[in-house]
Amino acid sequence: MTLQHEELKKQVNSRRTFAIISHPDAGKTTMTEKLLLYGGAIRLAGSIKGRKTKKYAASDWMEMERERGISITSSVLQFSYNGYRINILDTPGHQDFSEDTYRTLTAADCALMMIDMAKGVEAQTEKLFKVCRMQGIPIFTFINKLDRHGREPLELLDEIENVLGIGSCPLNWPAGLASGSYGLYDRRLQKLELCQGGQISEIVPSNGRGLEDAAIQNALEGSFYEKLKQEMELLDGAGNKFELDKVKKGLLTPVFFGSAISGFGIETFFHEFLKMAPPPAGKKADAGLIEPTANKFSGFIFKIQANMNPAHRDRIAFLRVCSGKFERDKVVTLVRTGKNIRLSQPQQFLGQNRNIVEEAYPGDIIGLFDPGLYQIGDTLCEDGSFKFEKLPRFSPELFAKVTARDATKYKHFHKGLSQLAEEGAVQIFKVPRTEEIILGVVGELQFEVFQHRLQSEYGAAVNLQRLPYQLARWVMNPDPETLSRLRSFVVKDEKDQTVILFENEFSLNYAKDKNPSVTLYSLEECPIV
Ligand code: G4P
Asked: Could you tell me if the CB of 259 is within 6 A of ligand 1?
């Protein structure tokens, strides 16, 4: 093995690239901030919150990057901790929810699912979880807000198993103390961590007696001790055993409890998580599995964002490095077109500012200047000899009819429409015969962004008229009679495939019952889209 290959292996093994998924308010931002604090990437709690509320100016981020050597992009946070190089991918919350959010998960090697202890599994967590499931990536669970009155831990585990359909294995467990104080029993290390009046301490029995240890018994009041003991016996007897192999296959989720805001349980969690979380894995391509340690550089585009900086009026394509070492000025092939491209200005982003990346390794994300070259799902590789599997698409759930306000701007309107569709900002359908255009999205904000961008970037003002549909189903080569029997709204997608829009589950199920011989595919299942 050459020295370079040795180095590549080392870099790959030190990478941990993950997304934090949660319903808004479960504590994703607070957790991200705590992890950055441990990594020494920020010094002040509140910095990320600042970003969220836009209190922080771009220059503050610049300053921070210079000081700490981290990169803060709109898509990824990169920092070092304990010998690991960590990439946290941002999955925008409620208001910004879009297809991009889902696609970002295709660039992650595992996901951390945050759950609010008082609320349990919420709608958006469920959606994001399903996408992680499709990817087959390991999912780790953090049940947050232990410091507040929450639901019973056993009830929460039941909910994870029943609603999400994944086995769970708690690695620590809440132990009640008096009011205002709380504890966590670490099942593997058999120690008790305590938070009393804001002070964090721990009791580590030296004799391996775990819960039988007198110091632990003394630390917990009688009824709390009995409850913990009973719950531990129940979990040891009837709970899922911890099996790393099942975690890696996404069949079992390790569960941690803690409080992101007070930092209680976070450091232990982070240590364990990094040990269990996988380094970048091989990725399927038409030439077989491409290992991250393969010598030749490769990557794929998972997100394209236009006008990140209005002063530049440009598009940036986000590339996840999948194999080999990336160096600035590398010449690669864009496999779809066969074109050779010199990547002379690979970037990482910092608010409105950018900096050039000199090198990157599998698991890292870089931004490429895009003069209209790239499409979502594109493979870039050193010798152009393979193409990664296509990225999944996601069934839209919101629909609107779009028309140009000014007929003289028709050309601009169509140019904007096709570019934004290419970028994956919206999905476009046409009504046969009338040629009316219908937009499909997964998040409300996509409509607003679409409208705003058509106006500001292409000078075409548009009207949107919301339609009452929530579900799109693809039908393969239907005959006219079948279509009329389905009795719903029929449109064509960009590839001229037939798509039926339904108002709700009820109308979909009704159509299925009445037409058992017709297969209605969701976009995720559709074999040819
Ligand atoms: P998000 O990114 O998932 O949307 O959640 P975020 O971290 O913004 O947290 C949502 C709210 O929950 C915030 O309160 C935050 O302080 C609080 N929070 C996060 N972790 C914990 C925890 O461990 N315990 C408790 N008790 N609260 C927690 P907020 O009032 O909305 O904002 P702020 O005024 O604190 O900034």
From this structure: yes
Question: Which residue from 309, 323, 297, 317 is spatially nearest to 366, judged by alpha carbons?
Answer: 317
Q: Regarding predicted confidence, which is higher, 233 or 40?
A: 233
C-alpha to C-alpha distance for 413 and 428, rounded to whole angstroms: 13
Cα–Cα distance measured from residue 477 to residue 499, given in angstroms and rounded to the nearest whole number: 10
Q: How many CB atoms lie within 10 A of CB 65?
A: 18
**Which tens digit of pLDDT belongs to each residue from 146-204?**
999 899 999 999 999 999 999 999 999 999 876 778 899 999 989 999 998 888 899 88
More confident residue, 184 or 76: 184
Q: Does residue 49's CB lie within 6 angstroms of at least one atom of ligand 1?
A: yes
For ligand 1, the distance from its centroid to the CA atom of residue 454, given in whole angstroms, is: 35
- pTM reported for the whole predicted model: 0.87
For every residue of 297-351, which 3-state class applies, written as one string?
A: CEEEEEEEEECCCCCCCCEEEEEEEEECCEECCEEEEECCCCEEEEECCCEEEEC
For residue 103, how far is its CA from the centre of ligand 1 (angstroms)? Answer: 26
Q: What domains are there in the chain, each with its CATH number?
A: 11-171+255-276 (3.40.50.300), 177-241 (no CATH), 283-381 (3.40.50.300), 398-514 (3.30.70.3280)
State which ligand 1 atom lies nearest to the alpha carbon of 24: 4
